[in-house]
Task: inverse folding
């Protein structure tokens, strides 16, 4: 039976989010809202829960998982970023963008792409996520909450609770959020002088970043 937290979307209650953080620290898997869609999150170093997350989504280790970071200074601990990449990250963060970057040694190999050694990273623009990350004091590993066979992420926290009742340890209800997942940009191409590649056209407007298709 998963715990259900009704959280104010703009002024989240720290008492309830602290309870959610305790679930995470005990190996819990949570469904949380973000500025793009609902997502599944867990601790980075929790192999069993990461495996569970992949089973729910029915994705293998070639599917990029994403690290949710509180800010860009934290992001730099988990990815190799040059000055040109950092300028683009600064322009787009916080916001509904996921960036594919070369993973640093701080990222366990089991959660980075097995052949490319890359990881997805982003800084969400959502008060609940920001407070949750602040209380957790470390990034969270995440994946968009799109169930097998669905084309859109789950958006209704009550439906999430019903469908994942025995699969997740907690659901944070901060109301409905966007149905569109993040825009995914591969920035590894910039290391060799190439342009960023749009992997998925989603909620973030990549054209506003000066990127050409």
Result:
């Amino acid at each position: 039976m998963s715990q259900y937290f009704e959280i104010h979307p703009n002024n989240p209650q720290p008492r309830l989010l602290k309870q959610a953080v305790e679930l995470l620290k005990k190996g819990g898997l949570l469904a949380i809202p973000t500025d793009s869609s609902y997502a599944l999150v867990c601790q980075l170093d929790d192999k069993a829960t990461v495996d569970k997350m992949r089973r729910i989504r029915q994705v293998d280790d070639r599917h990029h998982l994403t690290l949710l970071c509180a800010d860009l200074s934290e992001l730099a601990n988990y990815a190799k970023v040059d000055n040109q990449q950092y300028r683009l990250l600064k322009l787009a963060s916080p916001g509904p963008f996921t960036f594919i970057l070369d993973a640093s040694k701080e990222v366990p190999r089991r959660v980075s792409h097995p052949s490319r050694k890359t990881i997805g990273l982003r800084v969400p623009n959502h008060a609940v996520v920001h407070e949750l990350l602040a209380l957790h004091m470390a990034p969270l590993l995440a994946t968009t909450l799109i169930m097998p066979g669905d084309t859109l992420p789950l958006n209704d926290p009550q439906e999430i609770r019903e469908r994942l009742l025995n699969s997740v340890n907690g659901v944070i209800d901060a109301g409905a959020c966007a149905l569109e997942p993040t825009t995914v940009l591969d920035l590894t191409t910039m290391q060799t002088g190439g342009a960023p590649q749009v992997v998925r056209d989603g909620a973030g407007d990549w054209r506003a970043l000066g990127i050409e298709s």
